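Regression test case RT-17, inverse folding.

Input:
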């Protein structure tokens, strides 16, 4: 085997190992960031407002954790920091498996999210670093499909183990512990990323596309995490059994997997502005349908539309960030911090709506108005950037098929 073949082999092995890791870790994310609200409603009879407050408490530490991932990994090594985060998540899940008093949940769930905030920027850098153009897009596509497809099983696990949340957390603790064996074989830092080579695989429009996508991405998470904590209440009011609701709540996640797969197989979306506008429109319309609470099937359809729009914005933002910012852990940290902003604003928006003296359509209208304002700002920014970059076109490798 030549030196080049050996390098390619090691790169492929690392990519496969990282994808396996992302899949296992995302089951935990599915439970702790999307499904824990079904558990608290079932075990502690949480109201919508209590779940929104818990969501805010859980998400606040995510932004500083994500932003600190880059500097910390530079000092001690990305693999070592990821190992510490893994141990932390496993310990939190093991404690939650004992069903501790209610106050402990308010402490432990945020601790889990600190570890998750450190984890994902590192994993994203291992996925993308050393890759360029089509090779990077395909690696990011596989990553998106893997982590997104692994989140619904976390919600299904809650449905299957309804009435036995202890078992759910035992499974998560074992899974996090098992991934330590994968990480042990990774290099201390992500592979070297050639910034000179990177410039040959991007166009002058990419920085503007990155700014526009990072303007719209937090809006998607604002809507998602305004909605996620109150989904149990929505399904309950629509007459859905508690054991079935988590599975139905995974609809948007499954739809997101679908759009990730389409964008992976049909990569012609890169360098095109309309993908951002379409994604934002689907996001807002899907949220509206869910919030109207017309019936179960309309809610499921709204979640699916929401998932497609969110997936389009997420894929674009991650790819442009890694392409422009050289696949660094810091780039993943900024990407996750933008997501964290949505994590925080979403529950805050829901709490604001719940605190209003009038509910129902008024709150819904207020939510959609705020979402529309954010969307308008994002779309305006995108148009400005488009005017500046309209004379540029995607680089040759994007159309020729060469990596």
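Golden output:
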């Amino acid at each position: 085997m030549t030196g080049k073949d050996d390098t390619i082999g090691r790169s492929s092995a690392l990519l496969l190992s990282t994808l396996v890791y992302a899949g296992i870790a995302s089951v935990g994310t599915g439970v702790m960031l999307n499904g824990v609200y079904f558990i608290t409603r079932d075990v502690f009879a949480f109201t919508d407002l209590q779940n929104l407050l818990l969501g805010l408490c859980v998400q606040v530490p995510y932004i500083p954790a994500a932003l600190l991932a880059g500097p910390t990994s530079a000092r001690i090594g990305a693999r070592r920091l990821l190992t510490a985060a893994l141990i932390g998540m496993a310990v939190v899940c093991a404690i939650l498996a004992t069903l501790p008093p209610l106050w402990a949940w308010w402490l432990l769930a945020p601790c889990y999210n600190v570890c998750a905030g450190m984890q994902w920027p590192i994993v994203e850098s291992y996925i993308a670093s050393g890759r360029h153009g089509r090779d990077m897009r395909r690696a990011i596509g596989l990553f998106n499909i893997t982590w997104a497809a692994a989140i619904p099983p976390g919600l299904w696990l809650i449905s299957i183990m309804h009435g036995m949340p202890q078992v759910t957390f035992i499974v998560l603790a074992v899974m996090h512990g098992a991934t330590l064996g994968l990480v042990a074989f990774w290099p201390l830092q992500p592979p070297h990323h050639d910034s000179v080579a990177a410039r040959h695989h991007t166009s002058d429009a990419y920085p503007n596309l990155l700014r526009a996508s990072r303007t719209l991405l937090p809006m998607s998470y604002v809507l998602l995490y305004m909605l996620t904590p109150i989904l149990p209440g929505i399904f309950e009011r629509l007459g859905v059994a508690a054991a079935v609701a988590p599975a139905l709540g995974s609809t948007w996640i499954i739809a997101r997997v679908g759009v990730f797969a389409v964008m992976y197989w049909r990569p012609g979306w890169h360098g095109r502005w309309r993908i951002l506008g379409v994604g934002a429109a689907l996001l807002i319309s899907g949220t509206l349908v869910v919030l109207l609470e017309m019936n179960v099937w309309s809610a499921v359809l709204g979640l699916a539309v929401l998932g497609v729009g969110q997936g389009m914005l997420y894929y674009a933002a991650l790819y442009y960030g890694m392409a422009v910012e050289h696949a660094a852990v810091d780039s993943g940290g900024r990407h996750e911090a933008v997501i964290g902003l949505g994590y925080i604003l979403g529950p805050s928006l829901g709490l604001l709506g719940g605190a209003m003296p009038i509910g129902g359509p008024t709150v819904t209208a207020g939510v959609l108005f705020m979402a529309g304002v954010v969307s308008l700002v994002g779309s305006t920014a995108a148009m400005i950037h488009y005017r500046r970059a309209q004379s540029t076109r995607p680089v040759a490798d994007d159309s020729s098929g060469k990596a």
